[in-house]
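re the bet — no i am not wrong, look at it urself. input seq straight from the record:
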Amino acid sequence: METRILKDNWKFTRLVNQTEFETSLPASAYSILYENGIIENPYFKDNEDKLHDLMEEDFKFTLDFNVSPQFRNCDMVILSFEGIDTSAHISLNSQKLADVCNMHRTWRFDVTSLLEDDNNLEVVFDSPFRIAKESWDKCPTRGSEDAWEGFSNIRKAHYMYGWDWGAHLPDVGFFRDVKLIAVSKASIDSFYITQNHSDGLVELAIDPTFNSPFSNKEFEDLSLVELNAMSDSEKFNYVVTVVAPDGSYFSVDDSPSMVSITSPQLWWPNGLGDQPLYQIRLDLYDKDDVLIDSQIKRIGLRTMTMHIEKDEFGTSFAHEVNGQTFFAMGGDYIPEQHIIPWKTREMTVQLLNDCKLANFNSIRVWGGGYYPDDFFFDMCDELGLVIWQDFMFCCSAYELTPEFESNIVPEFVDNIKRIRHHASLGLWCGNNEMESFTKDGEWISKESEKRDYLFMYERIIPSVLKQYDPNTFYWPSSPSSGGSFDDPQDPTRGDVHFWQVWHSSKPFTEYRKYNFRYLSEFGFQSLPSVKTFEEGISDDPADMNLFSYNTEKHQRNQAANGKIMLYLQKTYKYPYNFSDMVYASQLLQGDGIRYGVEHFRRIRGCCMGAVYWQLNDCWPVISWSSIDYYGRWKALHYYAKRFFEPVHISCEEQGWVSASQPDFNRIHFDEMEKSIRLNITNETRDTIKGIVHWALRNTDSSIIREESTPVTVDPFSAKWMDKVLLPEADLRNNYVSFQLIDEATKEVISDGTVIFGLPKYFNYSDPKLTASVNGDEITITAKAYAASVEILNDKEDLVLSDNYFDMNAGSKTVKILRGDASSLRLRCVADIGR
């Protein structure tokens, strides 16, 4: 088999005025017109609105290409579109191939009889706004009000039509390869691998399927027996080669259905062990032992499922790998770009590496985008990031017509086959939030939509998975308790989305009222860095205001900037400049998520997952992300690096914020409990022996009272220390520092601080922060207690081993992981409102 990628020498035409531009793939209308100076940056200021009329147009891509006689004379030549967005009409040499309307599918066409020496390929794209209107007029299926009407039944990434963190920027074009594939005699379609584990041995069941140019059904999946039955004169066989992580290999001839690996090296999620990967190669030979096709899959040797059983808290819901349940720690991933051709491999590599740096062991791929690229899954395999993979349905009802069903089933098959072998694939999930919304009648216009919900997620998808990936766990919706509208947000089973903090304006301590089994969404917004504002939102100083026009154009959660102010008022002094506003908002976000994660890790065993909303952005925006559009870490990502550390100490304090009457003018300070209760969580396979030390301190860090206690923490457990009452603690002048120290090395494993009052009322001393740089290290010195110390460089793109940390008077050294540290500035909570 020979593959030719049709990448270069394309022409793009605006049909409304016949202007033409040369381009290479991947490319889209927005990317081409911006790169040729026809439009301004769609992300900047309010340019999104100015470009709306542009996307009322149709566009055309054309390619003239040559094909050699040798290529054309193969038994079959396939034209394959691996990412075409979305509604398009495809012709080759003036012969219509198809009208397509699903960006999630791979579209393949047998063009053997159509090819000539000189060829012309033409793809005309429909206006994405017009097809949305036509879809709405034909079938007014309702969905998220943040998106454009009509998006629901178009198999286009929903977020492109707008979301509560996204712009209205639906695009058209190619976001993956267009290929010509020449097939001689036969080709490998795919092969499915089932792992059977026993002591010191893993047996791989190999189940390949093939395509034949001589089949009566185009691209029919054939077993080897069926392939060989296609011809009396041609017989095929295959060889399986296994390449171990160290490069050693062995091959098994004669079309084996089973391959055995002795002394297997097991794959583990990040933090639990290593991620060794094996390469499985299948080579297809004809009767003369001529190699005619090969396919390689890289796998990890592991078992993976969800552990679900009745227990004292209800019904468990936990990832289980190699027989070990583990606590999921990570974030919800959305597409990295509105304009998909602008996404680069380097962006994805950095983003996922930054997840590992922040101690993630899991990622949830949200169902309102598109199925990620192959190298996304390759990276997650390498980094040990277990993937919760939604099918691409989100926040909408769907009309399950025969036409719609015939469009989505091949979508499922294409992506299941493409993704199923990855070590990182933890589970498939039917949709985002539609079980709970359908149960509540949200966006439901007629009773048949409830019926269609059950057909789609509890019949069609499970039946496709049973055929193509029976070994991977399937969950019908997120959140869910197992399906059939059976109390999808039940806190005692399944997963939940919890939004009382943020959407309902509840305090951070609200998390402590709940003992969920697994949180797959909860979040809090913050502003991106000032540099991100200047580069991506507006360079006008007048827009450096939370309520300016262009700032609010980049806030899609309605009055959310006001909500940030609401929480800020309860916590910090009023920031007098925009930079301090950014800083304060990011601290709020970090603390909001920290309160939740630390509580849920403390009840490990009952709760077994905390995956926050959201990891990343697709344009410069005020959102729930911990990493902004340009890859800059917000404070939350550093907080996550700490609260997701495999061994973590945290404090459940009682004080002002947890008092039953926190109103300043009504609270009885003398009656308020001031206490700490420390907890150590150990999400490793090792027993931890250490010393827990805490100290009640004045703002200059002088010690009032301290204690040290030896502690042993079993693997995969959480251990409570005894509650300590501190009636002598002054709400406005004392704080507690705490740390877990390794018994053998005396090094600090984890640490933190807590105050009993509110930061805005706390009498912080001026810590007189200074920084010194020595090679790849920065040492911060403080003369007094400093909370949430921020270290920034001029570009605000510095990535450090720690940042936004608390420190006692003294010094702390951090490593420079990325960025230029030649010019630094420092800030801490004491600086807010000065």
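see?? The two ends are 69 Å apart (CA to CA). told u. also The first strand starts at residue 2 and ends at 5. so pay up
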